[in-house]
Amino acid sequence: MKIKKQGKKLAILVSVILTLFWLFPYVYVICCSFKPGAEVIAIPPSFFPKTFSVENFTGLFDRMDVVSYLINSLVTALGSTVIAVALGSLAAYAIQRSGAKLSIFLVVMILCLKMIPTSSIVVPIYEVICDMGLYDTRIALIIVYAAINMPFVMWTMLSFYEGVPTTLDEAAYMDGASSIDTFCKVIFPICMPGVATAFIFTLFLAWNDFLVSLLLTSVNAKTFTVGLAGFLSAYNLDLGPMCAGAFLFSFPVMVLSVAAQKYIVRGMTAGAVKG
Known about the structure:
There is one protein chain. Helix content is 77%, strand content 0%. It is an all-alpha fold and 275 residues long. It has helices spanning 2-33, 37-40, 55-63, 66-98, 101-115, 122-131, 138-162, 166-174, 179-190, 192-207, 211-216, 224-228, 239-259, 261-274.
């Protein structure tokens, strides 16, 4: 028993140390956000601000259309996530319940699609979007984000569907329910922890994207990540407004992560047990 207690205490200590190590850069960014511009680049640097200032936030809003970029990021992230989760959940259900040998091939294809780096396909995507006349539009970002993140949703949902007995489907069919009714009214509610997990992670992937938005937007649909990169050039690096923008952009995600932590853990644990 003593060995178990000591092991538990050691695990907690290691977790706390790793958490502090992970939080250190983010806390430093927050501190730099509220420093005067000169203090941000001072040598030697100070961790906590000696003088509290909102100069960096003022400079951020003066030099960047913050509200417009945030709205673009929010609309494209939410829109693409809803589409990816809806279509990905349906596709994963069809593959898992098909029972055909082709389903194994499709599962392998999903895994392969999930492993393809975005940087290797972003140029063909750019050409297709330009040919469709959708360059610099929110619609283009929503379509691309949904397509890129859909394999992740499908792979996440497959393990949940495997844990749902097929007798539920058969019982619904006996009651006269169609395949869509069975999925929407029986299977989907049971797998809500998995849906919540897939939704949150997919939302984060779309919200934090930089490369796709950089190539597919210029003015009208530019997202916050691309706009923030404007403070970095070959001859200048304005760290103060960049830190303020990074804090402003990441703070909602941090709050959502903390608020949805129990759902994420529940969904990942349920998927692991069912799979």
